[in-house]
Amino acid sequence: MVNTMMTLGTLLLDILPLQAPVAGLQITDVTDDSRQVSEGSLFVAMEGLTVDGHDYAQVAVDRGAAAVVAARPLDLSVPCLVVDAPARALALALGRLAGDPAKKLTLLGITGTNGKTTTTYVMESILATAGRRPGVVGTVGYRYAGTEERAPFTTPTPRVLHQVLGRMVEAGCDHAVMEVSSHALELGRVWGLEFSLAAFTNLTQDHLDLHGSMELYLQAKLLLFTRHLRPGGCAVINLDGAGHRAFLDAARARGDVRVVGCTTRPEVQAEARLLDLHHSIDGLSATLCLGKEQVPLRSPMPGAYNAENVLLAAACCHAAGVSADQVAHGVAALPGVPGRLERVDGGRDFAVLVDYAHTPDALERAMAVLRPLCKGRLIVVFGCGGDRDRGKRPLMGAAVARGANLGVVTSDNPRTEDPLEIVRAVEEGVRGAGMPRIGDGGGDSDGYIVEPDRRKAIFWAITRARPGDIVLIAGKGHEDY
Predict the structure, then answer these.
(1) Do 438 and 449 touch, CB atoms closer than 8 A?
(2) Model-level pTM?
């Protein structure tokens, strides 16, 4: 049940002790956007990445705010309540005003740099096959009960998040599978959410524009396990993923959660394993071991990193009470994930795949999957997004130089930056790794070209593909803009 009005004391319960008459103020809405304030709203002043909400507190009061929550005292004509973490107050208050829908769902959270989306898709398929009613919050969209909504963020802002979770509850969902991004953890979007299960995929360079260093990026990711995993919950960790040790140590250090390790390496002992693993362009097959249960497993998704994602999803669902047989059926039932090594060639004599790879590690892993399956040349179309981690640009160029026969450097979401400046940074990495530029005319020799127009870049790659070649169009994945 969604509340249309709540007292300020109830909204800020356990956040700030309030005395009458302030505690009895009737609040009609909670927002951190002064433009959304209406009569009776609670305005939460947040320090954002580009603007400071404290500068707009008076605007909020002029628009009818009944009270303001802030990180510092403000001279206002309405109560100004100072708290240490306005983001926590915002998220908790929004959840309460929405009727706390998160508490009516079993929350399963996945964090890591790469593999979150695929893992959630596999978990969704397994849970649905097992008779559960899952909803999903992730990069591609928010899905529940046959409905799919476009996702503006991997993990949405608290207002949107609680609205989506509320619609899941109304639709009869019993589980919510969530991609939990480092942005969401760092910025406090998931305050108040207690996850029954937290899973880790891997940690490689990304989002340093927000976090500033790999250590701070790691600390943000760890919050899912240290702050948001409920006592008695389960931590599921990909032991094959870079950076796994920190997550394993953090989970074990708590002492009040179960820890499940996952591996595809036969020499490593773990509760969840894949044995006799085989790959082809048509997918993978293996023996799935979950504790003492063993079942044959097949998935149409190819590649070693998809094997890791499938295993992680299998272990998560098994920890949530799904049998190994049901897990295997759920994995086999999923034909693929949009924009994740998705084949789009329509049965030509060369393969064309679209993938969301937009980090050095993701590019390397995608090419590592395709290289042994490629009878001809591997052609990679790629670029880097603007207003994001600049340090990864030459690293992505170097990765393609090492892994591809032909590289096509192009534009990919330049945002507010000059796309040519981004391309030049990528090209430095390509040249530095020793791949020669082959000129605008192309030719049959290995090397790279630069074509900032993405449409023309894709056209160039497709028209030069020969029988047995594989064309990988990286970066955009499921995105259609």
Answers:
(1) yes
(2) 0.84
